[in-house]
Model the fold of this input.
Amino acid sequence: MHSKKILIVEDEESLLKLESILLSSKGYAVVGVMDGNAALQEVKSNRPDLVVLDVMLPEMDGFEVCRRIKENPETSGIPIVMLTAKKSNNDVERGKQAGAEAYITKPFRSAKVIEVIESLISGH
Done:
């Protein structure tokens, strides 16, 4: 069985490294990008099994990236986990409206992130 591919979209390098190490240690193949356009490119060319998406990104925010992935019939089935410091009910609602399967706020607990990702990926 080949390992599942996870795309992490996070503009803060230290967090991107941390999340990559966390998921790689669980056996996932991880690709990290730092902005929305790169994320959309990656989703199109390499079809990850799941996307971990920050909201606050340069140029295009995570809600917009999420919407675009979900609007495209070819990529709409890819589960998206929003991982963000924005924790107001309004933001959570926007994440759901954009089509995210899960919304986790920072600072996050690693165990929780892994749990959510594993349940979404296995239900694929």
Summary: Helices lie at 13-24, 36-46, 62-71, 89-98, 110-122. The chain has five helices and five strands. The first strand starts at residue 5 and ends at 9. Strands lie at 5-9, 29-33, 50-53, 80-84, 102-105.
